[in-house]
Protein backbone atom coordinates (compact mmCIF):
# COMPACT_ATOMS: atom_id res chain seq x y z
CA UNK A 1 0.00 0.00 0.00
CA UNK A 2 1.06 3.57 -0.41
CA UNK A 3 2.21 5.81 2.32
CA UNK A 4 -0.51 7.33 4.39
CA UNK A 5 -0.48 10.40 6.51
CA UNK A 6 0.16 9.64 10.15
CA UNK A 7 -2.58 10.94 12.33
CA UNK A 8 -1.96 12.62 15.61
CA UNK A 9 -3.49 11.01 18.62
CA UNK A 10 -6.76 12.77 19.10
CA UNK A 11 -8.70 12.52 22.28
CA UNK A 12 -12.38 13.17 22.47
CA UNK A 13 -14.91 12.95 25.25
CA UNK A 14 -18.06 10.97 24.65
CA UNK A 15 -21.34 11.23 26.47
CA UNK A 16 -22.21 8.05 28.37
CA UNK A 17 -25.91 8.73 28.42
CA UNK A 18 -27.93 5.92 26.85
CA UNK A 19 -28.41 6.58 23.19
CA UNK A 20 -26.51 9.85 23.16
CA UNK A 21 -23.89 10.14 20.48
CA UNK A 22 -22.56 13.52 21.52
CA UNK A 23 -18.81 13.86 21.49
CA UNK A 24 -16.58 16.72 22.46
CA UNK A 25 -13.44 17.22 20.46
CA UNK A 26 -11.07 19.94 21.59
CA UNK A 27 -10.46 22.62 19.01
CA UNK A 28 -6.79 23.13 19.60
CA UNK A 29 -4.13 20.62 18.80
CA UNK A 30 -2.66 20.89 22.26
CA UNK A 31 -5.87 19.96 24.01
CA UNK A 32 -6.63 17.14 21.66
CA UNK A 33 -3.29 15.47 22.12
CA UNK A 34 -3.54 14.87 25.83
CA UNK A 35 -6.45 13.08 27.45
CA UNK A 36 -6.22 15.26 30.53
CA UNK A 37 -6.28 18.43 28.49
CA UNK A 38 -9.16 17.16 26.41
CA UNK A 39 -11.19 16.47 29.53
CA UNK A 40 -10.33 19.85 30.96
CA UNK A 41 -11.46 21.52 27.76
CA UNK A 42 -14.67 19.51 27.84
CA UNK A 43 -15.36 20.63 31.38
CA UNK A 44 -14.89 24.23 30.35
CA UNK A 45 -17.44 23.61 27.62
CA UNK A 46 -20.04 22.52 30.14
CA UNK A 47 -19.47 18.78 30.11
CA UNK A 48 -19.57 16.79 33.31
CA UNK A 49 -16.25 15.03 33.29
CA UNK A 50 -15.25 13.78 36.72
CA UNK A 51 -11.58 13.05 37.15
CA UNK A 52 -10.76 9.38 37.14
CA UNK A 53 -10.14 8.13 40.62
CA UNK A 54 -7.37 5.60 40.79
CA UNK A 55 -7.09 2.81 38.32
CA UNK A 56 -9.92 0.67 39.56
CA UNK A 57 -12.28 -1.26 37.39
CA UNK A 58 -15.04 1.33 37.50
CA UNK A 59 -14.83 3.90 34.80
CA UNK A 60 -16.16 7.39 35.35
CA UNK A 61 -19.11 8.40 33.26
CA UNK A 62 -19.01 11.53 31.22
CA UNK A 63 -22.05 13.51 30.22
CA UNK A 64 -22.58 16.18 27.63
CA UNK A 65 -24.13 19.49 28.75
CA UNK A 66 -27.53 18.20 27.70
CA UNK A 67 -27.35 15.24 30.04
CA UNK A 68 -25.40 16.66 32.94
CA UNK A 69 -28.59 17.12 34.94
CA UNK A 70 -29.53 13.50 34.59
CA UNK A 71 -26.47 12.10 36.29
CA UNK A 72 -27.66 9.36 38.63
CA UNK A 73 -26.79 9.85 42.27
ZN1 LIG B 1 -25.50 13.35 26.13
Please tell me about this protein's structure:
The chain has 73 residues and is mainly alpha-helical. The protein has one domain. It contains two helices and two strands, in the order ββαα. Strands 1-2 form a two-stranded antiparallel sheet. The chain starts with 12 loop residues before the first strand and ends in a 29-residue tail after the last helix. The mean pLDDT is 78. Bound molecules: zinc ion.
Key attributes of the depicted protein:
73 residues; mainly alpha; two-stranded antiparallel ribbon; 2 strands; 19% helix; globular; binds zinc ion
Structure ligands: zinc ion
Oligomer: single chain
Count of structural domains: 1
Number of helices: 2
Terminal CA distance reads 51 Å
| Strand percent estimate | 5-15%
Characterize the main sheet: 2 strands, antiparallel
Order of strands in the sheet with most strands: 1-2
Rg calc: 14 Å
The gross shape turns out to be: globular
What is the overall pLDDT average? 78
Unreliable residue stretches: none
* N to C succession of SSEs: EEHH
Helix content: 10-25%
**Which structural class fits the helix and strand makeup?**
mainly alpha
Number of strands: 2
Amino acid sequence: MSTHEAQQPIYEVRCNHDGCTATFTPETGFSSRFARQARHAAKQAGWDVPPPYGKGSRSPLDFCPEHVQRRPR
